[in-house]
Specification:
The chain has 448 residues and is of the alpha+beta class. Helix content is 67%, strand content 6%. It contains 21 helices and four strands. The protein has a four-stranded antiparallel β-sheet. A hairpin with a 2-residue loop joins β3 and β4. α4 packs antiparallel against α6, α16 packs antiparallel against α17 and α20 packs antiparallel against α21. The two termini are 43 Å apart.
Length: 448
């Protein structure tokens, strides 16, 4: 009965017909603040500038202050000062189509009835974030003892900019995302706050790198943010910062040829620290195979071999060496590298799995050559060549089975063993293994 009464009450409340932002009242506060700072006596007080900062912060957040991620669409219309949208539609971002609600100051993006992100389309006052930051900075300059109040105001601005960066990135508004993340970082360096997070520079750099694919001018800003992030001691877990920095330099090569070498140096610095990063390896192979005057791909081997000489039991370096030789289509050296990985750490799943995988790649390569010569070979030569190919494939069985022992029911390992044992089904014991792995594969498929 209580719920029914509450529902009836909601129905009895007339829905707000449109978003309401009291722009005139906020602009009046800004006008008063302008008059206050024009007054020499008032302008000399930190409180005047703190109030000004608050006023511009209010102008900044007023249109979207009640929005939050995963908000139910029905709740939005009941939220104070929101009401019904001007129009509704759909928009595809990437490969995902969202329902859009258009309001005077923003467009909301819904997925499955929940707020995914939003895009600000209008402002109460242009550059209000900058104005608020200037005001708080002036307050601190006039009276450092106002630091706690200034920090409180800066914290609000920083959180707003972080959120703005997130929603802009989500809606593929990458340049604005980069700007917002960078603004947040700059405000964090203020002496009243003094807690800069280099990850914000990284986020700004990544945003501008992505934007550079459509607007090449963004690559320069992206490089600046990423360089500053590295200088500040930041690096993501996988070292992708070097891959993004490579793209920022590479994207400027036509305007400045020196950027080609800088792009190479960024990748070399990255691979030295993160030899397992496939993206960095791919970037290096792209440079060395498609650009003139960059260097010999063998230089990559020398680079990593020198590192291994200094640290011979570093499995990450051996892992990276194996990937480089795979990119060079030198399967024997790739296999030798992963044999070293499994020798150093026998119970390392990835080492055993990739050792088996590279035996398969070597077998596939030999099999292709075998198929190319079939029409010109004798029966005896055919049998001998087939025997040699199958011998290579046989080498993959043991490491893959060891990998499955280390990580039971791993679907990729099971699928590779299923296919491999079927190919080798005429070899002794292989048909029994195929039956075993085929059944296990079916079980895994049915459990998905």
């Amino acid at each position: 009965m209580i719920l029914s009464a509450f529902a009836a009450l909601l129905l009895a409340v007339p829905a707000v017909q449109a978003q309401k932002v009291n722009k005139s009242a906020i602009l009046a506060k800004i006008e008063k603040s302008d008059a206050d700072i024009a007054d020499a006596k008032k302008a000399a007080k930190a409180a005047t500038w703190i109030n000004r900062g608050k006023t511009f912060y209010e102008a900044t957040v007023e249109p979207t202050k009640n929005l939050f991620g995963n908000m139910e669409s029905a709740m939005l219309t009941l939220t104070p000062n929101m009401g019904n949208p001007k129009s509704k539609g759909t928009e595809t971002i990437g490969n995902v189509t969202y329902e859009t609600w258009v309001y005077p100051y923003f467009t909301a993006y819904f997925q499955n009835g929940k707020l995914f992100a939003w895009k600000e389309t209008s402002q109460v006052y242009k550059n209000s974030v900058e104005k608020a930051f200037e005001a708080y900075s002036k307050a601190y300059e006039l009276d450092p003892k106002s630091a706690s109040k200034v920090k409180e105001g800066l914290t609000q601005l920083i959180n707003y900019c972080k959120q703005l960066g997130d929603v802009n990135y989500a809606t593929h508004n990458f340049a604005e995302a980069g700007k917002a993340f960078a603004q947040a970082y700059e405000m964090e360096t203020h002496p009243a706050y003094n807690n800069p997070e280099p990850i914000l520079l990284y986020s700004a750099g990544v945003s501008m790198t992505v934007d550079g694919s459509e607007h090449p001018a963004s690559f320069k800003k992206g490089a600046d943010y990423l360089e500053r992030a590295i200088d500040a001691g930041y690096s993501d877990e996988e070292g992708r910062i070097y891959y993004y920095l490579f793209h920022c330099y590479y994207g400027q090569r036509e305007e400045n040829p020196d950027m080609l070498i800088k792009s190479k140096d960024a990748l070399l610095a990255g691979i030295a620290k993160y030899p397992k990063n496939d993206l960095i390896l791919q970037g290096l192979m792209q440079l060395y195979t498609s650009e003139k005057n960059v260097g010999d791909p063998a230089d990559l081997v020398s680079l990593i071999d020198n590192a291994i000489a200094d640290d011979p039991t570093n499995i990450d370096l051996w892992f990276g060496r194996g990937r480089i030789f795979y990119a060079l289509k030198n399967f024997d050296e790739s296999i030798a590298s992963f044999q070293k990985v499994t020798e150093i750490k026998p119970d390392y799943f990835e080492g055993q799995f990739y050792l088996g995988l590279f035996y398969i790649f070597k077998g596939d390569d030999a099999n292709q050559k075998f198929n190319d010569m079939m029409s010109t070979t004798s029966t005896a030569e055919f049998d001998e060549a087939l025997k040699a190919v199958n011998a290579i494939y046989m080498e993959a069985i043991a490491p893959l089975e060891k990998a499955l022992e280390l990580k039971p029911n791993d679907p990729d390992t099971v699928e590779n063993l299923k296919k491999l044992t079927f190919r080798l089904r005429d070899e002794e014991g292989m048909m029994e293994k195929h039956t075993k792995y085929n059944e296990l594969f079916k079980q895994l498929q049915s459990n998905q």
